[in-house]
Amino acid sequence: STSLKEDDPEVFHLVQREKWRQFSCLELIASENLTSQSVMEASGSPLTNKYSEGLPGVRYYGGNEIIDQVEVLCQKRALAAFHLDPQVWGVNVQPYSGSTANFSALTAVLAPHDRIMGLDLPSGGHLTHGYATAKKKISSSAIYFESLPYRTDPDTGLIDYEGLASNAAIFHPKLVICGASAYPQEWDYARLRKIADESGALLMADIAHTSGLVAAQEAADPFVHCDLVTTTTHKTLRGPRAGLIFFRRALEFRVNQAVFPANQGGPHNNTIAAIAVALKQAATPEFKQYAIQVCKNAVALSQHLSQSYGYKIATDGTVNHLVLWDLRPLGLTGSKLEKLCDAVNITLNKNAVHGDSSALSPGGVRIGTSALTSRSMNEHDCRTVADFLHRACQIAIAVQASSGKKLTDFVTALEGRADVLALRKEVT
Ligand code: PLP
């Protein structure tokens, strides 16, 4: 067959434009990264053509001799990358994404209506950890299980372990979930284990955001204390879009059954091959250096914003790849700064900060350094990025003062402004 360019120029050009966007913008979305060429080659390979329901050696389809080898290789590399003893830990590499990995993990160890406790979404937790609002159960993890979230302290932004422990003593969860989408500090896994044990609960860590740092041993090791560890593969781990579930061997059968046939069909073998490639990379000294630099860059960016410009950073800094910038003292919403940044080719996202009651009108933005570091940026570069962010923020404050509070008016007022155009030109 012919190339994409010849076969479907419309899609080809959209791909080219997105590629250009990714490299001409400053990509600060904390859940994103830039994968290597080899990961993309495996991801776009003929392995996408094959059906292989089941596990290596026990498939529902013929012709899986090579696919079996790919999946076993991926499993081995996953255990090696996270320094795990294969006697104690196993891994399922088939989840299509972090969300399906989490739901499969939950259904593996829980019955319908069993109780779970995860970090609340406005505190930085993920939807799939039992998110519900006062009015509605949003995530299927809250619809099919009874969820009582724990929170961060509204003053410090740090996990309120005491609140979690006292509620757990009343609620008696079957599963405690730790891990977050927007938490810039380290987790106290030993303390969480103790809280879980007091209720006879299992402990699961979702390290989607920090798994690259965990593999590089630049973040605390959740495996020592947890029964299950889930992750996405496309954030700090720098792989294709997918998920992994690590389980203690006693849970092997239940986890594998939960992935297939309970929640998924045929594995995406092209993706599994691409995960294997990323995991090989994650076990190298170069990746360790990358992970160290990701954290140094986040610290440099955070410190420049707080110390040079006096902005408020949630939890007063970061120990990982992300910075939560609290905009509330400026009277600005996360949505407005996000829109302003979009207009100047800086990509980041609005995010709740501690004390925000709702995720719908967040008081801050989340900034990540994984993608910038993949582009070889260092602390000096990240301070320049912080300078850009400062200018963006000042423009946003000025635009808000002249356009009123509504987001639509704000966006209209951005058009054609000389300071916006000048900043966009410099960023690009
Ligand atoms: N878990 C956490 C902590 C996440 O931050 C995310 C996504 O951002 C997910 C799970 C879900 O991953 P996916 O988008 O691949 O379903």
TrEMBL record:
* One Pfam match: SHMT
E.C. designation(s) = 2.1.2.1
Record-listed N6-(pyridoxal phosphate)lysine modification sites: K235
Q: Which GO terms describe its molecular function?
A: glycine hydroxymethyltransferase activity; methyltransferase activity; pyridoxal phosphate binding
Q: Which reaction does it catalyse?
A: (6R)-5,10-methylene-5,6,7,8-tetrahydrofolate + glycine + H2O = (6S)-5,6,7,8-tetrahydrofolate + L-serine
Transmembrane residue ranges:
none
Q: Which domain of life is it from?
A: Eukaryota
Cofactors that this protein relies on:
pyridoxal 5'-phosphate
Question: Which keywords does UniProt give here?
Answer: Methyltransferase, One-carbon metabolism, Pyridoxal phosphate, Transferase
Cellular-component GO terms for this entry: mitochondrion
Residues of the Serine hydroxymethyltransferase-like domain: 4-388
Question: Which GO biological-process labels does this protein carry?
Answer: glycine biosynthetic process from serine; methylation; tetrahydrofolate interconversion
Metabolic or biological pathway, per its Swiss-Prot or TrEMBL entry: One-carbon metabolism; tetrahydrofolate interconversion
* NCBIfam families given in the database record: PRK00011.1
> Per the similarity annotation, which family is this?
Belongs to the SHMT family.
As for what it does, the entry says: Interconversion of serine and glycine.
UniProt protein name: Serine hydroxymethyltransferase
